[in-house]
Model the fold of this input.
Amino acid sequence: MLYLVASPIGNLGDITIRALDVLRQADLVAVEDTRRSAILLSRYEIRKPLVSLHEHNEARRTVELLDKLQDGANVALLTDAGTPTISDPGYRLVVACRQADIPMTIIPGASAVLTALAGSALPAHTFYFGGFLPVKSGQRQRELEQALRRDCTSVYFESPHRLLKSLEILKQSAPNRLICVAREMTKQFEEYRRGPARLVCEHFQQHAPRGEITLLISGSASVSEGERDSPPGATQDS
Done:
């Protein structure tokens, strides 16, 4: 059987008892980064053969792991943080197992998306998850403009090196829109910086962003009449 095991998004104490049991019983653990996963396994005194499965070797490794699964091995798939296949490797292997009728189960756990939503104080009854924001500036601009037009909260992963560029786009396009930057969630320096886009942008212009970052943008349906988006310098109808 293939086990998709959710891993902590920061605090190593956030792994479940069931996940630890599965890792102890697995014949082999496929991991995104052997060094990072070794830290987690060592914390709980689990010693298992590790093989890497990441975006650069996923096609080749899927064939190898499929052979082992068909021979009767129990394989656990563990990515660096969160659930495999959710903006992480594993999709090819899951599809291959479904096509080969190999049994598979999910071991749920920590989620950066849900943690950020819960801590953001933005509407979360419906939401859109867009994965990592595009690297290219034009594509990023278009994606953020789409987020501003959606009725629901939009959630993205973002690099600390590109966060300011994204915040500047939001500040120019919708300075009053409520957003939240969730940073280093579950870790010692966890931060939820929430407010109008212009103020959040100004904060990070003065404090360089660091660590793992999730960006949340409230939907247009949550904007009150007194908070309608308008570019800096523009006036609103009375």
